[in-house]
Amino acid sequence: MTDNWAMRLTAAGVCLLAFGIGVSASGAQKAVPPALSKNVGELTPQEEEEFVKVAETTIERVCILCHPFENIVKTRRTDREWSDQVINMAQRGAPGTETDFTLVKKYLARYYGVVRVNSATAEELSAVLGLSSKTAAALVEYRKVNGKFTDLASLTKVEGIDKAKLEENADALRFD
Known about the structure:
- The chain has 176 residues and is an all-alpha fold.
- The protein has 2 domains: 2-112, no CATH class; 115-174, DNA polymerase, domain 1.
- The protein contains 10 helices and 2 strands.
- The protein has helices at 2-18, 34-37, 45-62, 69-73, 79-91, 98-112, 122-129, 133-146, 152-155, 163-168; strands at 115-116, 173-174.
- The protein has a two-stranded parallel sheet with strand order 1-2.
- Helix 3 crosses helix 6, helix 5 packs antiparallel against helix 6 and helix 7 (122-129) packs across helix 8 (133-146).
- The longest helix has 18 residues, at 45-62.
- It is globular.
- The chain starts with a helix and ends with a strand.
């Protein structure tokens, strides 16, 4: 049992180092990685690339032991549904830390999420579409003032919205 515990601590330490988190001798966390402390839409391209790399490695270690990746992502889910799914897997014994589960949820929501643009919060829009907090808030405000969005083209009326980002996430958009 001691060897298993030592292996888990070592794996957790390696994971934390991969995230750029230093841990002191007392076990205290020194820094929060940008991918976990920032909104996905606020990451620089380099930070997002690192986020993807670390998240995919973490998913391989935490999730793919039990499930082929194709099974995990075959159904798009809302931000909340991904959160519930990750919590469920953690409770069922998936081998990860709280940081691992946060990263996995954030990655799955961003790249395999779905968002109901006419009822989603700014946080949900940002998490799934990778919009900045400011742009997501503008989208919600526009919706309040002008009514429901009907399609992708109607979203482009929001000032400051990146049409290319919306188009690359078209599969994630729901207008119900």
